[in-house]
Amino acid sequence: MAPQPSGGGSPRAPRPRLPRATLSRQVILDAAERLASREGLGALTFQALGREVGAHPTSIYRHFRDKDELVLELIDTLRSRSYGGKLEATDSWRDDLRSLARHIHEHYLRYPQFALEMAARTTRRPTEFVNVEVALDAIQRAGLEGAEATMFLRVFGNVVRSLASMEAGLLALDPETRERDALAWELEYRQLPADRYPRIAAEADRLNSIGDPRVFDAAIELFLDALEARLAEKARGAVDAGG
Questions:
Q1: What DSSP string describes 166-215?
Q2: Which region, left, alpha or beta, applies to residue 124 given φ > 0 means left and ψ of -120 to 50 means alpha?
Q3: What's the whole-model pTM score?
């Protein structure tokens, strides 16, 4: 029996070799997206990419130093595709942070296979720089500055990415596992004995699953409320200090 490829399924016919001049960074990025979406980031090697584009793996090193550089470039490219050029400041810092959060959330759900890398890594590339600039501008317009502004910036980023990546991770599961987890919230939690888990039993019909989109929106509103509460506290402190 002929060996099967590591990703399973039928053996793939070898692709014809590309002329060297046609191999570009964009061709490689497009191939990397196809390969990672199909087989996961773990399958994204230069050898596999060479097979995907019909080129010798060493030719990819002429465009990318290593896999890490390629992955970071791919992440930033996907971000730009999702919401590049769509982030514009308004007269409401709260609306601007809410809009940024929703763009990022939708992006993660669009590319769930990349969620872990997107959440954990810093790409140090243009779209990421724009994200940070937009968020910091909104926070400073709200009235925070210095270390306090940068702390809220970090909290905002971590909240958005962690929640978005959790939902995206759910989408990346195989359908059977995803359905089993969903049924746990719908059935198993409702069947827990009330004498042992009285609070769960009382609220079982209202428990929200990880994939409930209202959870993300609620979390962002809680963050924005916390920022406004901090601003109010600073205002009261300034009044008290002024006598």
A1: HHHHHHHS-HHHHHHHHHIIIIIGGGS-TTT-HHHHHHGGGPPPTT-HHH
A2: left
A3: 0.85
